[in-house]
Amino acid sequence: xxxxxxxxxxxxxxxxxxxxxxxxxxxxxxxxxxxxxxxxxxxxxxxxxxxxxxxxxxxxxxxxxxxxxxxxxxxxxxxxxxxxxxxxxxxxxxxxxxxxxxxxxxxxxxxxxxxxxxxxxxxxxxxxxxxxxxxxxxxxxxxxxxxxxxxxxxxxxxxxxxxxxxxxxxxxxxxxxxxxxxxxxxxxxxxxxxxxxxxxxxxxxxxxxxxxxxxxxxxxxxxxxxxxxxxxxxxxxxxxxxxxxxxxxxxxxxxxxxxxxxxxxxxxxxxxxxxxx
Length: 277
What we know:
This protein is α/β, with parallel strands linked by helices.
């Protein structure tokens, strides 16, 4: 006998612990949604079936809420993942697969007056920053192929120098806390003349997990040695152009360019963290 399921929708952007309360899903690397489900007790055979059906209803509800949240993630200031799905069947299919592979963050079934209420929280990985996402597909990986790669003529190259002293840098931290900047999937580092220092075209998807990583402080970024290594170069963003183009001082751009050449092309591996407020 099929049970009729009553679904109660709820959508959570809040994090699962107070310590993470100030983190957005992008900086945490995980997006979560919670669903609630109950069941008509007159239509079930026993308590076990009631619990299972309530949990199933909550899972379906959480998946629906999670899809809504995923589709609202911004690729640029003016486009979202939903826009990318409309433009690409491949992206749409991969987002569907990501949703189907959502992992359970927590689940609970409670009873009140003989009725069962299930609560299920599901999560998907936006990037590989969270330890739980190291071996899982991420939304960043799905979106990356849709990002426009800047041509060589518009990329920054530092002039030759007589300085023969190599610099040791294992990655790059960009302190953008001084500008009004929010995380997107499509972010570029540029000079004041608009030449691109780092963007999707620098990254080799076969060499690293993600081309963008996020943190709330420089110290927290330094702690992510798995991303930027033990001796990252730290630069400060000067301004923001067109919402997603982070402008650097020309001297910093030259330092990044030369350090990257001298240190095994860490930009190609996506060893870059943006620090945001």
